[in-house]
Amino acid sequence: MKIGITGCAGRMGQMLVREVLLTDDCTLAGGTERPGHTALGQDVAQTAGLAACGLAISDNSEALFAASDAVIDFTIAEVTESHARFTKKYGTNLILGTTGHDGSQMASIEAAAACAPIVKAMNFSVGVNVLFALTKQLAGALDENFDIEIVEMHHKHKVDAPSGTALGLAQAAADGREVDLNHVIDRGRDGITGERRRGQIGLAALRGGDVVGEHDVIFAGPSERIKISHIAASREIFARGAVRAALWSAHVTPGLYSMLDVLDFSDGDA
Ligand code: NAD
User: Fold this and answer.
1) E strands in 70-191
2) Which domains does the chain have, with CATH numbers?
């Protein structure tokens, strides 16, 4: 499979280039960067810290989609609409890690998914997606005598809280219990909060050091407690999951898929 990488000089882009070049069953089709970027014209692999591969970084996204079986996109939400257009035009599979899409950008993704497989995930880590599936399953199996708390920790530079992954875990727990998350979520406690409400799903965010990302889901019941955890040691886990999704996409019909589909956990069973 020929895989192209958009935003190939970015933090995730460089990891994706390395992952494609080090993975069997795929070859690198090329890489793009935004117009005016200082890396334009440089070798794609060299920019990612590897030996030169003879492909120069270009700002021509359309040519990359035309030359690729799948494109992996971890860039900015503003370019998704044009990338979705190229997916439609060339039938190129799209693996979309970019986050922060608004309603019209989401609509363009859904429209393009009629023409080619698109895998979209806010977290491409295989382990985190297993945690999503387990959280949903446990929340469904344990009644409201078990209080659900989600604790996450990230490095001190992260500007938002709670993390998108923590919110995804809260959603998975709410789905498992078949309740509306908006009615049960508690995003932070401070001061005289009163007793914990039955059925609440609580979130807490810790910040410090260079922690890549840690998530605990705690089910605290009478006289017993279950805790499931995921610890990310490197952002490489996202690149590895995205390349796995690209290879998987070669075998499915057009449609919008999640990482749970790639792992065959889409019904929540782990
Ligand atoms: P980054 O800023 O390091 O990289 C983004 C790159 O995209 C930059 O090099 C930028 O120049 C490039 N770019 C912008 N416009 C472009 C265009 N028109 N054509 C080609 N390239 C263009 O950011 P990052 O940390 O690599 O994250 C990128 C995105 O991936 C963010 O949305 C982030 O939230 C998301 N992300 C998702 C996951 C996941 O698992 N889904 C994991 C990590 C990051």
Assistant:
1) 70-73, 93-96, 117-120, 147-154, 185-186
2) 2-120+235-262 (3.40.50.720), 127-232 (3.30.360.10)
Give the model confidence (pLDDT) of 233-265 as tens digits: 999 999 999 999 999 999 999 999 999 999 988
pTM of the predicted model as reported, rounded to 2 decimal places: 0.89
Q: Which amino acid is at 243?
A: V
Paired sense of beta strands 93-96 and 117-120, if any? parallel
Mutation probe of ligand 1 site: the residue of 38, 60, 61, 74 with most atoms within 8 A of C-beta: 74
Distance CA 255, CA 115 (A): 8
Ligand 1 contact, 4 CB (< 6 A): no
- Determine which one of 154, 183, 215, 227 is catalytic: 154
Q: Which residue CA neighbors atom 18 of ligand 1 most closely?
A: 34
Ligand 1 binding pocket includes 12 (Cβ within 6 Å): yes
95: helix, strand or coil: strand
Our answer on whether the CB atom of 158 is closer than 6 Å to any ligand 1 atom is no
**Does 251 participate in catalysis according to the annotation?**
no
> Tell me: the pLDDT tens digits for 124-157?
999 999 999 999 999 999 999 999 999 999 999 9
Query: Can you name the residues that pair with 256 across neighbouring β-strands?
Result: 118
DSSP 43: B
Give the C-alpha separation, 40 to 8, whole Å: 10
Residue nearest to atom 9 of ligand 1 (CA): 10
